[in-house]
Amino acid sequence: MKLSRIALAGGVAASTVLLIAGPAAAHVSVQPVGEAAKGGYATLNFKVPNERDQASTVKLEVNFPADHPLSSVTPQAVPGWDIKIDKSKLDKPLEVHGKKITEAVSKVTWTADDSEIAPGYFQQFPVSVGALPEDADQLVFKAIQTYDNKEVVRWIEEPTDGGEEPDSPAPVLKLSAASDDHHGGGAADDAKEADDHKAADTAASTEETHAAASSSSSDTTARTLGIIGIVIGVAGVAFGVLAGRRRSA
Question: What pTM does this model have?
Answer without folding.
Answer: 0.63
